[in-house]
Amino acid sequence: MRKFNEEKELSSMNGALHLRSQINEIIDKIHANNYQNICWLGIGGTYASAMQAVAHMKEKSALETFVQNAAEYVVTGNKRITKQTLIIISSVTGSTQEMVEAVKRAATTGATILAFLDIADSPLSKLANYVVSYPENEQLKFFMVADRLMYLAGEFADYDNFYQEMDQNFAQAIVEVAKKADSFAKEFAAKHHEDSMHYFVGAGNQWGATYSYAMCYWEEQHWLRSKSIEAAEFFHGTLEVIDRDTPVTVYVGEDMQRSLSERVAKFLPQICGNYTIIDTKDYDLLGISLQYRGLISPFVFHEINNRIDAYVEHINRHPMDIRRYYRQLKY
Amino acid sequence: MRKFNEEKELSSMNGALHLRSQINEIIDKIHANNYQNICWLGIGGTYASAMQAVAHMKEKSALETFVQNAAEYVVTGNKRITKQTLIIISSVTGSTQEMVEAVKRAATTGATILAFLDIADSPLSKLANYVVSYPENEQLKFFMVADRLMYLAGEFADYDNFYQEMDQNFAQAIVEVAKKADSFAKEFAAKHHEDSMHYFVGAGNQWGATYSYAMCYWEEQHWLRSKSIEAAEFFHGTLEVIDRDTPVTVYVGEDMQRSLSERVAKFLPQICGNYTIIDTKDYDLLGISLQYRGLISPFVFHEINNRIDAYVEHINRHPMDIRRYYRQLKY
């Protein structure tokens, strides 16, 4: 298995889960101060993660929660963001230009800003009210925040039970996904590493990740053309350009929007001979109860996508770290 | 000019503007009953129009307003939709399956449903509390609702002045756009009617329309591959797959997010030799004051896109009404 270190992965995920006591201390305090709404502020990959957090909450929550694109916030503002807003951000570098500008503007509203930063000492850290510093695992961090907020709002009664399973079994279950998916991923990469266009379809808590995978991985890191489309929207346009040879991948998860992705998966074989269905149901996830599988579907897909990336990168001899234009040219 | 009937267009737009007294009567009543939030419910093209309505409101409004995809609502619900919610929908056929199911579910919450229906006697009309029946002009209808809501909330002080200009000058100003854009549109169609992929970039109140133009026009009606991308997001992935020959069109409007599209327009010539910038500033819009031009930018683009469509349709001898799969196969 290329680029796979089981111990490192386990330790990374378990370390992220251990942030929960720190996160809960922060969130419990914010909850006690009567926040009014929750804003997930991001751009690019973090905008996508923000979409996932909102989709994740929508299944259970009556709280007002929304995504805000950072660059759009800088020019348009958002009058729903006030001193009673909790803003959650995440950044690897802590220096993405749109994020720094957006958080500066947000800070003037008096909103409470919780930042997850891979690098603790960065421009963004100085602007946040709370900083949690730990590398990677963005989605896990976001979901832990969302889950605590819902728990405190009385919307997640079995929170303790769920996190008991997560703490005990999540990391190992996800690592097993990587092992099981590896040969599939290798074949997938061999078949699709030169696609002139690849369509990715996703729904629910996987939609943000689908958007991100097409844009932040295939386009940005592999320099491969791709388009993401919400499963619900697939039938309102995109289907008409799919033919026998068009590469289409559908993510079928186990959250409440499973049926929307299933609908695409069932329809596709009639018109397309080059589709791939990736279904979380094909993975065991030992120690995770049936009713929680949907909540962690995005992590299953993420692990499978990582495997695909490792092989596409190698076959194409295209290191994923290089950029043609980003941070090479000014914009 | 192909497929262009000035008198018919003028009468269509002016007729839509005349709906305003009917719309205001409805909205004033809903406002008096203390609604809590505003949901724009749609799928495909109407989902896109909903995005535009929300972007339009965000410039001015502190009201809680959001987009809800109809198919997603059917499976996931949305606990922010309650009996104090105003839901706005629009439908040409009045029978789109996801819309009918979603509105049925929404009706059980006791939300107030305002429906714009091209066909008055349709399944959706029976489910709505208020029906306004008039063909086309969806965006204009949505903006009139949004503007009245903002006016009543004290967020649109010069509402009367704006609509005086709209009533007097809007339709003619837009028709003049069509005439001025026609030769450009013909050349554009001649150059791009066979593109293997076309990228459309938009921002602000044009983002929804950009999404829709790529998906509901190029993909669905021309069977041409295309991808839409938010101007703010362009730099976070998509730029890496753009090269000398990649067709990219950027819509540069005059709303508050103009700078985001401008940034793409200024960047592109460095890496791409096949781009097109469509800028509303190139059009006169006689009788529309400078401060209102941004509000109607989407209508300028819509008219230009219509011109392009007329020529692509003819050159490709591909009638825009035919569908390869939609409503031909079950899904």
Q: Quote the distance from N terminus to C terminus of chain A.
A: 38 Å
What would the CATH topology of the largest domain in chain A be? Answer: Rossmann fold
Please give the CATH architecture of the largest domain in chain A.
3-Layer(aba) Sandwich
Q: If interface size is counted as residues with C-beta under 8 Å from the partner's C-beta, which chains form the largest one? A: A-B, 61 and 62 residues
CATH fourth-tier homologous superfamily of the largest domain in chain A: Glucose-6-phosphate isomerase like protein, domain 1
User: Percent range for helical residues of chain A?
Assistant: 40-55%
EC number (chains A, B): 3.5.-.-
Domain SIS (chains A, B): 26-156
Organism (chains A, B): Bombilactobacillus thymidiniphilus
Protein name (chains A, B): Fructosamine deglycase
Write up what this structure looks like.
2 copies of one chain form a homodimer. A 5-stranded parallel beta sheet of chain A has the order 2-1-3-4-5, with helices on both faces. Chain A has 331 residues and is an alpha/beta fold. Chain A is globular and about 55 Å long. Chain A has helices spanning 6-17, 20-32, 45-58, 70-76, 97-107, 123-127, 138-152, 159-192, 207-219, 231-234, 258-267, 290-315; strands at 37-42, 65-69, 85-91, 112-117, 130-133, 198-202, 226-230, 248-252, 275-279. The first copy, chain A, is built from 12 helices and 9 strands. Helix content of chain A is 50%, strand content 15%. The mean pLDDT of chain A is 97. In chain A, helix 4 packs across helix 5. Chain A has 2 domains: 6-152, 3-Layer(aba) Sandwich (Rossmann fold), CATH 3.40.50; 159-315, Glucose-6-phosphate isomerase like protein, domain 1 (Rossmann fold, 3-Layer(aba) Sandwich), CATH 3.40.50. The first copy, chain A, starts with 5 loop residues before the first helix and ends in a 16-residue tail after the last helix. At the A-B interface, helix 3, helix 4, helix 9, strand 7 and helix 11 of A face helix 3, helix 4, helix 8, strand 7 and helix 10 of B. Chains A, B: Residues 26-156 form the SIS domain. Chains A, B: Keywords: Carbohydrate metabolism, Hydrolase. Chains A, B: Homooctamer.
